[in-house]
């Protein structure tokens, strides 16, 4: 009898964390490493948010809170959903966890039984399939290639749904591609979902405010109100508010689901950090002008990376609508050999050789379910990105 659980044997460690860890090890050993693997903005937490966290400590707000969040933060989240998304939630329809990942996991743990299927468009965030596996469900991966700009089509969605389907996990703008669905594209998907009342929608809106070039974000329950009672609308403070380490994610959904998620959290972590919750209230209720300033930098960086990568023979890089990632296709580089003697059979070979030979850390596409590609996070300085692109150009020029 194995000591470790069978469900754990189906789960892979996070590839993004693994690449980031390897890059840090090489850097500690004295290598000149440019890390483009972590999905984390390089801006500090805005001052008014940080000060609210400090004030919470000074006021002694360091004790347990309600299991799934304070009433103050739930009220701020309800106001955010009404203000930004035209969605009306009551505090008892809100859950708050230690990051968006825990929100997603709680929902899956609370709802999945053996044999239940979860439709996941690929490329996907690396944790989606493994969380489904850990919770006893079956991921149904739907490849969405570069020809559809990495977006799920209505026909693909319809074909993926079976009587066993319980959830569709939806993410826009996307990690890893940055692709954003227009209102018309999302309406076409929700029209399909209306034909399948047993399918719920888990909408991961973490990159909502990181939208560029006039792209207008919208979320499924906003586009199709008939889906409101079977949609979990997930968001958090990590990306737009530069609060990755504060670990606050939240969601709005039907009370029956939120109650079940609270039960899961009550027996796992209990409440999210009290100090982080106080800071999040200030973030949601306070000024948001910093987001536009940050987005100006992200657009500049995106344009730099897209232009430089598309100038390389064998690489095709679409311009994303949001987030802070690009997901270039490297089909034209497969089958070649690097200057260091590494044969490019897979995109993992490419990413490994790139790191070892040039010191540029990216994440290989297989980690996100669609190959051959790689992901760059451009949430770092312009100078670092320019130097990384130069090294990638040199690396690709040396392929034979």
TrEMBL record:
Keywords: Aminotransferase, Pyridoxal phosphate, Transferase. One of its GO terms (biological process) is amino acid metabolic process. GO terms for molecular function: L-aspartate:2-oxoglutarate aminotransferase activity; pyridoxal phosphate binding. Residues 32-392 form the Aminotransferase class I/classII large domain. It catalyses: L-aspartate + 2-oxoglutarate = oxaloacetate + L-glutamate. Its EC number is 2.6.1.1. It holds the Pfam family Aminotran_1_2. InterPro entries: Aminotransferase_I/II_large, AspAT/PAT-like, PyrdxlP-dep_Trfase, PyrdxlP-dep_Trfase_major, PyrdxlP-dep_Trfase_small. Belongs to the class-I pyridoxal-phosphate-dependent aminotransferase family. This is aspartate transaminase. It comes from Aquimixticola soesokkakensis. The lineage of its organism: Bacteria, Pseudomonadati, Pseudomonadota, Alphaproteobacteria, Rhodobacterales.
